[in-house]
């Protein structure tokens, strides 16, 4: 009896020691990013593993600021994970030397014509900032977006008005909503990115495409169209279009809380605003996106608003050169772009899929479905120009200039000269 | 006695010091030299760096408005937090050691902000300050006090002062606690003698209590200067250094340059300047004000 007991204990001991080792035979893919949020990422991993056993994904999701610090530290220490989240332009270019070209992975998964299976803006922006002659794709787009305006449907219905299409209409609505104690256009202009988003739409109205020429040195940021767009930006504050104290408020979470509370008639955001409907316990306006509808930025020039919108990649992913399992990493990325993981991601309405044809499994309301169709079938297909800028210095200078002009510390001309100086 | 054994005995102090010295070299000296070296390069922190000598320093001192604003803000922060905190803390401590009812509960209440994370405070105060939907603005509208509706952190002219006010609010309780400890440690005889001699309350505070709390003042000044030079989380959460760098502090500027702007070389140069300022401030304090701090006194 004693011998049998000892034998059983030995077997259990051997199993206890060897099982983790057996489990470690799985190929491990370490993933680090700021997006998607951890709950969504874990659901995507589960969906991926259901079809791809044998690959263990170890996610680590942090906020964007912390992610930048971690990534830089890991790169300096030579310990980058297999798979990293990227933004097009400056961030991808900074890590380009550490990233594998992914065309072969894409061809193996989707065939030679793989680029045609993505919205064009996703492919174009994946190469944003590549040196001349370098056509490699260092990150594959996962989610794309437009930037645009939204309005709060119940507020507009109660007032019996339509979304504005010109500046005069916008001003008229602003006067009316200000008198009611409602923010005409709610913006957390304390955040540089939303200031830039609005300016990008203004300059796109004034002179479509010119800002990209200025980035490449073929035009000057101090030129008249840029100053004119900056003047319009200033007027948005002076004319009471934006709510009082906009410069001291963050867009997330401060402005968003006011929007959700029904205290904002309109607000600048992007296609990603649809994700509000996928949040746990959404407030009434967010439920099934019942309370919101998108519209294009009003025409400020009087010559007509452009038909197309600005947009680009929300998040893309790259495989690092140090990855011990690049094939597994490729499998993960492509699944999250067009496979089971992608479907889980899209079901959260997180943003628009970079891969054409994906659609959430269900919609909670007709409005929500109509908004999705508008974005994917009409607006996204028309995107020609990027929401992002290539140079972090220009981006920072523009954001600082927008704050300075809005605060009255600089004239529009001085502000744009500052941006031009940063582009030298 | 063999030479080796003799040498070991003669130098045994080195072995006791070695662990601390090794930690000091690895975690203090090496990073300082590394940062100084990095400050001489145009470097994004990832890719190959280009040597530019003192180019970063020249740009910083001749053509960088944000840097000069950060230096100015550090001076504002030093003087407008340390001294108001000291005076308010002393006043509170005087009241809360006078035997009023529930004084221990009041001490806890006043001290509570000091133990709340500055990240949380930044988020809360952004909502308090917001002119639209913020606590102060809504209160102003409700009670008919429109002067409360101000762009506290949106106006570059007042944003730094609004930020400093939050810092003072947070740390006054800490100063109060230090003074409470100091006041409780004062010799009763001196105070009684002054009272017998007919000294008024003002005279007792001015000539006896305040001077006898010198070690507390020095401690608060030292901690205040260190805190100023380390200020990051509150500013980052409340204003992100804006608008237009109006509330920029050296640590937030270093972060901005190093990570979002991918200029690790330049950020290192700013860090070197911060280090020099910190060292100078410490030497100044020890030499001019003395070193009789509460800690170690």
What attributes characterize this protein structure?
heterodimer, A: 424 residues, alpha/beta, D-Maltodextrin-Binding Protein, domain 2, 2 domains, ten-stranded mixed beta sheet, 17 helices, 47% helix, B: 297 residues, mainly alpha, MetI-like fold, two-stranded antiparallel ribbon, 70% helix, 1% strand
Word description of this protein:
- The complex is a heterodimer of chains A (424) and B (297).
- Chain A has 424 residues and is of the alpha/beta class.
- Chain A has two domains: 163 residues, 3-Layer(aba) Sandwich (D-Maltodextrin-Binding Protein, domain 2), CATH 3.40.190; 203 residues, D-Maltodextrin-Binding Protein, domain 2, CATH 3.40.190.
- Chain A is built from 17 helices and ten strands.
- In chain A, strands 1, 2, 3, 4, 5, 6, 7, 8, 9 and 10 form a ten-stranded mixed beta sheet that branches.
- In chain A, strand 1, helix 2 and strand 2 form a beta-alpha-beta unit.
- In chain A, helix 2 runs antiparallel to helix 14, helix 9 packs across helix 11 and helix 9 crosses helix 16.
- In chain A, 49% of the residues are buried.
- Chain B is mainly alpha-helical.
- Chain B has a single domain, classed as MetI-like fold (Orthogonal Bundle).
- Chain B is built from 14 helices and two strands; from the N terminus they run ααββαααααααααααα.
- In chain B, strand 1 and strand 2 form a beta hairpin.
- Classes of the chains: A alpha/beta (424), B mainly alpha (297).
- At the A-B interface, helix 3, helix 12 and helix 16 of A face helix 6 of B.
